[in-house]
Amino acid sequence: MSDRLAVVTGTSSGIGAALARRLLEEDWTVVGISRSKIELDHSGYEHLVLDLGNLHALQTLAEKRLAAMLADHRWARVGLVNNAAMGGTQRGIEDTDPEELAWLLAINTVAPTYLMGVAARVVPPATPLRIVNISSGAAHRGFPGLGDYCASKAALRLAGMSLAEELDSDGRPGGRRDDARVFSYEPGVVDTPMQTRARSASGGESPWAKPFRDFKAQGLLEKPEVVIGPVVEFLESDDGPAFEESRFGA
Ligand SMILES: NC(=O)c1ccc[n+]([C@@H]2O[C@H](COP(=O)([O-])OP(=O)(O)OC[C@H]3O[C@@H](n4cnc5c(N)ncnc54)[C@H](OP(=O)(O)O)[C@@H]3O)[C@@H](O)[C@H]2O)c1
C-alpha cells in the first residue's frame, strides 16, 4: 500500500495527466481534480470532479473530503501540485471584461492559494509537505494580450513565496513548520491543449496568437512527459530551501 499522497489539480489533460500517470508509476497515491474525468484505471488513483472556479464548491470539497485525506497520519509524505489553469483570454487589458477576469483569477490564483493554505494547515506537522505551483514565464514579465494570465501567475508565484516565509517564521501561530517546501516551476512551452487553444484564439485571427503559432512552427514545444521530471524530483526531495523556483531546461 502506497504511503505517499499527491493531490494534483488539472489531471484530465496535458501536464497534469502526464504527472498523475508518472506519480502512480512511482507508487504515489494520487487524488486528481478537474471538471472532466481522466480514464485512469489504477487502484491508486481517485478523481474528484470539480470546477475550481466555483469557490463555494471548492471550499465544501476541501472541508468535507480533502482536509481529512491530507490530515491522515498514514502518509509518510504529502504533495500538492497546483497545476490546473485557464489560458488567458488573449484580450488586451483595454478590453478587460471584469467578470471574465475574476473567473480566471479564481481558477488560476484563488483556488491554488486556498489549497496551499488548507494543506499547510491540516497536513500533520511531522509529515513532509511539498507544494508545487505550476508557473510560467508570464509570472515574471508582461506579454501583450496575456495580461490576465500574467497577473494570475505572478500572484500565485508571490503567494507561494509568502507561504514559504510564513511556514519558516517564528511568528506563525503554532510555530514554524519544519519540512514544508514550496516550488514554483515553469514548464517551458509544452505541447498540450492549452497551447492548441492559444494558437487558435479567435480562429487564429487574434494578433496576440502569433507567438504561439511561431512556437509550434519552430518546433519548440516539449512533451508533457518530459517537463514533469523536476516536479517529481521536488515532490520526492528531502532537504532544501522553503521556497525555490526553476524553469524547465534553464
Ligand atoms: N502548455 C504550456 O506551454 C504551458 C506553459 C507554461 C505554463 N503552463 C501551465 O501548465 C499548467 C497545465 O497546463 P496544460 O498546458 O497542461 O493545459 P491543459 O492541457 O489545458 O490542462 C489544463 C488542466 O486544468 C484543468 N482545468 C482548467 N480549468 C479548470 C477548472 N475551472 N476547474 C478544474 N480544472 C480545470 C483542465 O481540466 P478540465 O478542463 O477537465 O477541467 C486540465 O486538466 C497550467 O498551470 C498552465 O498555466 C503551461
Written description of the protein model:
The chain is built from 8 helices and 7 strands. The protein has a single domain, classed as Rossmann fold. With 250 residues, it is α/β, with parallel strands linked by helices. Strand 1, helix 1 and strand 2 form a beta-alpha-beta unit. The model has no long low-confidence stretch (mean pLDDT 96). The protein is 40% helix and 16% strand. It has a 7-stranded parallel beta sheet with strand order 3-2-1-4-5-6-7, sandwiched between helices. NADP nicotinamide-adenine-dinucleotide phosphate binds next to helix 1 and helix 5.
- What's the N-to-C terminus distance? 36 Å
- CATH level 1 class label: Alpha Beta
By DSSP (H or I, 4+ residues per run), the number of helices equals: 8
Number of strands: 7
Content-based structural category: alpha/beta
